[in-house]
Amino acid sequence: MADPRFFLTTPPKTLAELAGIAEAKLADGTNPDQLIADVATLETAGPEHIAFIANRRYVRAFTESKAGAFLVEPTLVERAPAGMAVLVCDKPRRAFARIAAAFHPEETPEATIHPTALIDPSARIGRDVGIEAHVVIAANVSIGDGCRIGANTVIERGVELGAGCVIGNNATLSYCLIGARVQIASGAVIGNTGFGYDLDASGRTKVPHLGRVIIEDDVEIGANTTIDRGSGPDTVIGRGTVIDNLVMIAHNVRIGRGCILVAQAGVAGSSILGDYVTLAGQVGVANHSTIGDRAVIAGKSGVLSHVPAGAVYAGYPAMPIREWRRLVGQQRLAYKGKGSKDE
Amino acid sequence: MADPRFFLTTPPKTLAELAGIAEAKLADGTNPDQLIADVATLETAGPEHIAFIANRRYVRAFTESKAGAFLVEPTLVERAPAGMAVLVCDKPRRAFARIAAAFHPEETPEATIHPTALIDPSARIGRDVGIEAHVVIAANVSIGDGCRIGANTVIERGVELGAGCVIGNNATLSYCLIGARVQIASGAVIGNTGFGYDLDASGRTKVPHLGRVIIEDDVEIGANTTIDRGSGPDTVIGRGTVIDNLVMIAHNVRIGRGCILVAQAGVAGSSILGDYVTLAGQVGVANHSTIGDRAVIAGKSGVLSHVPAGAVYAGYPAMPIREWRRLVGQQRLAYKGKGSKDE
Amino acid sequence: MADPRFFLTTPPKTLAELAGIAEAKLADGTNPDQLIADVATLETAGPEHIAFIANRRYVRAFTESKAGAFLVEPTLVERAPAGMAVLVCDKPRRAFARIAAAFHPEETPEATIHPTALIDPSARIGRDVGIEAHVVIAANVSIGDGCRIGANTVIERGVELGAGCVIGNNATLSYCLIGARVQIASGAVIGNTGFGYDLDASGRTKVPHLGRVIIEDDVEIGANTTIDRGSGPDTVIGRGTVIDNLVMIAHNVRIGRGCILVAQAGVAGSSILGDYVTLAGQVGVANHSTIGDRAVIAGKSGVLSHVPAGAVYAGYPAMPIREWRRLVGQQRLAYKGKGSKDE
Fold first, then answer.
1. Chains B and C: how many Cβ contacts under 8 Å?
2. Which residues, 6+ apart, have CB-to-CB distance to C337 below 8 Å?
3. Phi and psi dihedrals of B262, rounded to 5?
């Protein structure tokens, strides 16, 4: 499945090995020594592949699949076609992710420092660090053990990275303290001054931004995303939060742990997100808003002030999604009731 | 018209030459030897310029124009002011584009490889390739004949570019196979891992993204746009599709031929666009959506599932634009009927 | 308050000095020789700090603050707790910004040209210019006195920068003429060709973009923002306008003086904004729109054609905000009237 120009492929593995990797159980009668060569999708899998089913919508394709083996939930075991090996687990998607990673381990770039990289003598560089070409590392920067820094990336004065971080190409990191195992994709700009002015008819005074960006462990940040530093308080991204491409996080924003911010979402200044909050794509959050733990904001919605913990909101201004769905439904009914025809 | 600091200007041309370039016909009585020095807009053109009219809204300005010559549709020939030379053609805007390109040909950067560019010995570089300063080209990359690669751009392992591609500055290309004559503007990030996780209370497992980005011939991609690679299937951009700045294309998305994606649009994972689809600015398409051939989605709309071929949709959730227009109109009428005054 | 890894801190200052910097007046009985060590926020300030209050919402926190000194409006002087020194001024936020800048002056990078920077011999470089590593400056570029150019930035042929500009890292400037004291953040792409095509069933002709980007004095442009050059007319950003991160400005757009464009806003081709216009975050402006002086467009709104001077608009399509608020309120009332319960 994986193009060898881009991905490594490890040798075939027995079902017993795969069950170990996936923390799955072989269904009764399955041969533990059967060899599987690779992962594949439901539709494309052949006898040498293992696939998975995580959604009942695909049961039919599952029952007709030619895959040699499948990762399935307990309730679907009986639906497997004759001759297919079955690995039973509670979370087939997660199990598949682990097996895929075992067949195609990510290649870590070498832990070498390219001679064109410019590293200030005062910078502290850990062990087993890889730094690509034309990287610029300024005074008093600290890079933890095992980090990888992509080509043409600039790390400004005083920035600290914990162990095991991976930074893409052409990124800029400034005014930030970054935890362990953080991944920042190419083109991201972290630590720029916030967009804060005192304005009136007599002109504009830029408010000095004296805060930092604090990025906790295990955060992931997408390509060309921008995170501004705080104005005095810090901008904070909590542990394990994942942020997609082209997202904007403004000054003083505090994001909790385990949040998910999908592409092109934007969070305005001084807003606070709790833990495990989800912002779907293109969501906007107005400044000084608060969003409670585990709240979910549907795509393109606009949060103007407060969303309670656990709520699912949609629309603009954002409201409980059940309310929004009925509102949208009623609008369309009202329209149709006036005698027009759908296109 | 064109600032010589930025654009070349070729010598004046006769109307006969211009008619040839534009595939236009000289109107009766036009002197084929009349010289024109440059293109200009309707409002700014003088006797030495050629302009065009493509929209009836501007007929009055046309009849009062001082331009030496005009490109016009057949139906407007009679409205030309006395003494103006007229070139008749079906598509004046397209004809004008060709004449503008003849007066101001794009300067191709030289086909030289800057000594600071770092090119892995295993990379295959075609003939007449230009590679600017500080470019990094990794192992097994293939660059087709006549390509131009802008400064500080990074091309990761295994990437292939067809002939005649033009890549801007500070871009990152990875995990992608690119056709001929593709243009990718500065700051674009192609091939980053998709935003796919298996999440639950016990934590997060990153789904390995083992697919690629396939970009077919004659595609154009704007500045700071991001296109993620597939999770197993590929992300595909069909032949001749044009994508504006700051657009997000997620993993596994398949876009057909000749589509137009305007700035800040976003397409979520596994969605499918047919051929000749238009997404206007800031449109969002939810994951697993399908949009039929030649459908048009109005600016800022949100597509949640399916748009039929040929339809014009607007709103959020997107609906047929006729329906949306009436709905918006009724809302405002209802509001006004309650006795309030417009501001 | 400010982390010494990132910010300079100057020595303590007397209240008399601070009053001079802030153009504030010491309240009666204040000791002009009292020393203040730093600025701080309302909540975190101690006896050695000066803070400010600009919003009556925080009066309670003010009356309980432990700050040594406060910047307050005349009407709040009497509410100050006993023992707190008070500096009276009309604009406490602005005064605070000035004092913060005095305690933590921005460190200007050195006016040196890094040996890895590539500067075409025909380029004109002013006095006291700082150019960081791996910068590429092409033929006939002109850089004014006192400019600072960040690492890995590319400045294409013919571009001109006035005195005192500050450009970030990994930016691309092309086809543009830039005034004095302009700030452009990392990753911005200025001067790319506009997104203009002549399209029909027979194919696509790219319209040559022969205009420029004109950026007047004192403009600020955020990270990863993109501004396309004009198609013949120029794209113009007026004096003192500030543009946040990830904003898109299309070809031929004309933006007046002192405008504010918040993050992820987008302005489509040939639209015109007057002076002192505000576009809040994620606003979209359709092409050929006009927005009058001092108009304000609320976040996420979509402007389809015209907004009068001084108006405050919201919604999509954008309407007077008072109208939009009532419309939204009525919709929710109508919905609630049908017997459903809020979540």
1. 170
2. none
3. -85, 165
- CA-based nearest distance A225→chain B, Å: 10
- Pick the residue of A207, A248, A331 with the most C CBs within 10 A to test the interface with C by mutation: A248
Domain count, chain A: 1
pLDDT, residue A339, reads 40
Whether residue C335 contacts residue A326, with contact meaning beta carbons closer than 8 Å, is answered with yes
Residue C103's H or E segment, with its range, is: helix C92-103
Q: Give the three-state DSSP class for C18.
A: helix
What Rg, from alpha-carbon coordinates, does chain B have? 25
C77: phi then psi, degrees, rounded to nearest 5: -55, -40
- How many CA atoms within 13 Å lie on the side-chain side of A196? 24
Mean pLDDT over all residues of chain A? 93
Same domain membership, residue B122 and residue B92: no
Q: Count interface pairs A-C at CB distance under 8 A.
A: 167
| Residue among C112, C107, C109, C131 nearest C120 (CA) | C131
Helices (H) and strands (E) in chain B, counts: 4, 40
pLDDT at B127 over 70: yes
HSE of B330 in the Cβ direction (CA atoms, 13 Å)? 17
Question: In this structure, are C75 and C177 located in the same domain?
Answer: no
Q: Is A320 among the domain residues?
A: no
So what's the ipTM on this one? 0.93
Query: At a CB cut-off of 8 Å and minimum separation 6, what does C6 contact?
Result: A157, A158, A174, A175, A212
Beta-carbon count within 10 A of B203 CB: 12
Query: Per-residue pLDDT tens for A172-218?
Result: 999 999 999 999 999 999 999 999 888 776 677 888 999 999 999 99
Q: What angle do CA A155, A160, A162 make, to 5 degrees?
A: 120
Look up the domain containing C276 and give its range: 171-322
Contact A268 C299 (CB under 8 A): yes
Structure tokens at A314: 């949609």
Nearest CA in chain B to C211: B2
Find all residues with CB under 8 Å of A95, minimum gap 6, and list them: A22, A23, A24, A52, A71, A87, A89
A230 half-sphere exposure, CB direction, 13 A CA radius: 25
Phi-psi label, residue A106: left if phi above 0, alpha if psi -120 to 50, beta otherwise: beta
Q: Is there a domain that residue B140 lies in?
A: yes
Question: Do B59 and B184 fall within a single domain?
Answer: no
Distance (Å, whole) CA C14 – CA C213: 46
Q: Which residues contact C240 (CB under 8 A, 6 or more apart)?
A: A203, A204, C216, C217, C218, C219, C257, C258
Is C295:C277 a contact under the CB 8 Å cutoff?
Answer: yes
- Is B224 within 8 Å of C224 when comparing Cβ atoms? yes
Q: Using an 8 Å Cβ cutoff, are C221 and C238 in contact?
A: no
Q: A163-172 burial string, b = 16+ CB within 10 Å, else e?
A: bbbbbbbbbb
Residue C330 CB burial class (10 angstroms; 0-12, 13-18, ≥19): middle
The amino acid that residue A40 corresponds to is: A
- Residues B262-279 have pLDDT tens digits of 999 999 999 999 999 999
pLDDT tens per residue across span A84-141: 999 999 999 999 999 999 999 988 788 999 999 999 999 999 999 999 999 999 999 9
Nearest CA in chain C to B336: C323
- Tell me the whole-structure pTM to 2 decimals: 0.94
Cα C295 from Cα C317, distance rounded (Å): 15
CA distances from A320 to A45, A292, B75 (A): 41, 13, 56
Asked whether residue C195 is domain-assigned, the answer is yes
Q: Which phi and psi (to 5°) does residue B144 adopt?
A: -70, 170
pLDDT < 70: residue spans in chain C: 1, 201-202, 332-343
Query: Which CATH number covers residue B216?
Result: 2.160.10.10
Say if the Cβ atoms of C210 and B1 lie within 8 Å.
Answer: yes
